[in-house]
Amino acid sequence: MLARTYRCGLDAAVDVIGGRWKALILWALHAEPLRFGELKRKVAGISEKMLIQALRELEADEIVHREVFHEIPPKVEYSLTELGQRLNTALLPLGDWGEENMTGIAKRRGVTPAPPHTPSA
């Protein structure tokens, strides 16, 4: 196995959140801990296999905490660690940039943007 060298902080950060799903998982967990099924519903389009894999990687990187409640039926909740909360905060400007440019990006890539998000009352 070749040793990996990070060239800068962005290289390390992208290694942690790389892929299609991890940043969306972080965003889904920003407000409160979620059970697996709730998280799967909030991250639309992710398969169960990909969600399990991404959660394991985020847990190994100490971004997500997995808590098992020993009850019947068993209950597992996922939440952001302090490190995960800081990473989510760092991603906010990226999300803002994406919101501001989503229509143009979607048009150039042939993707349909979601309708504008309206906060619930």
Automatic annotation (TrEMBL):
Task: Recite the UniProt keywords alphabetically.
Answer: DNA-binding, Transcription, Transcription regulation
User: What Gene3D superfamilies does the record point to?
Assistant: Winged helix-like DNA-binding domain superfamily/Winged helix DNA-binding domain (1.10.10.10)
Q: Which GO terms describe its molecular function?
A: DNA binding
SUPFAM superfamilies per the record?
A: Winged helix' DNA-binding domain (SSF46785)
* Span of domain HTH hxlR-type: 8-106
Q: InterPro entries, alphabetically?
A: HTH_HxlR, WH-like_DNA-bd_sf, WH_DNA-bd_sf
Q: Which domain of life is it from?
A: Bacteria
PANTHER family, per the entry:
TRANSCRIPTIONAL REGULATOR, TRANSCRIPTIONAL REGULATOR, MARR FAMILY
Q: What is this protein called?
A: Helix-turn-helix transcriptional regulator
Organism whose genome encodes this protein? Amycolatopsis iheyensis
